[in-house]
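Convert to structure. Protein one:
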Amino acid sequence: MTSKIEGVYTKSAPAPLPQFSQAVKHNGMVYCSGNIGAIPGTNFELRETVKQRAASQTKEYQLDCHKLTRATQHQAIKNLEAILIASGSSLRNAVKVNIYLTDMSKFALVNEAYDEFFTCEPKPARTCVAVYELPLKTDVEIECTAFIDTDKEYMA
């Protein structure tokens, strides 16, 4: 292994701000920055498209937002997965996951989305923290640390 720190960048996930990398690799580990439900190549969140269609807080809009929260969480995890794959790792190699939520009433939805993507056993260690606000007014951000496995068959 090398002591060199290597930055990771993939077009399959939203571009990072200039102040940080999508991830860095060091000594067989990959450390991913926080990911939100932004659409790669646009940096717009899925929820913005729904908000633009809805003119008021109608019951229909609230139902859309419930579906949207799930879609936003899926996209955040897909972005994380794309970065891990570009790093030579995968979700199955995650050892620690941190999730930040602006609304803990969405905790069950987060768990549903999480369980769809993190299917291996043992599950990674995980922390879920309620925060007042997240960048770009998103409702969820997810980051993780994973090991880089050189056994390509395992990662398939």
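Protein two, convert as well:
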Amino acid sequence: MIRTRRSALLLVLAVAVLLGAALPAHARFSDTGAVTTAPMRTVDVLPPTNLSTAGTKCVPVHNSAGQQTGTRLEAKLSWTASPTPGVVRYVVSAHVNGTLYPYPVAVIDAPNTVARDDYDASVLANDVKVSITAVTGYGWTEQSVLSGSIRC
């Protein structure tokens, strides 16, 4: 008896599912609404400009006996800040014989626009140029044009 009821109930449910799936739905989607658009602004990061190596010079290095033992490059770079809002730092990069040196020469926090450092002047046996890259707080960057070759 239980088996018969169970079989009958299963048959009724199967027929209901099949017939229910075959009938069209009665729901209607007629609600409409206005779509508003938000204005989109794009930001173009502008590079630093007017890169200058004025003030860069080579100075003889002497030992305690007064003999010249080498030459020191006193590098000074200056530039005009990028006008892009959100610039947080400038990365100074060296380009040696046309190839970008793999590590930054210096990282300068904005709004500073001057970098100074000393190097052994023997680096100038190569063709050395520099560039300045503006870095924003949201990670966008833009590199300046290359400086002229640095000479003593």
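Strands lie at 49-52, 57-62, 68-80, 87-96, 99-100, 106-109, 114-120, 128-136, 141-143. The two ends are 108 Å apart (CA to CA).
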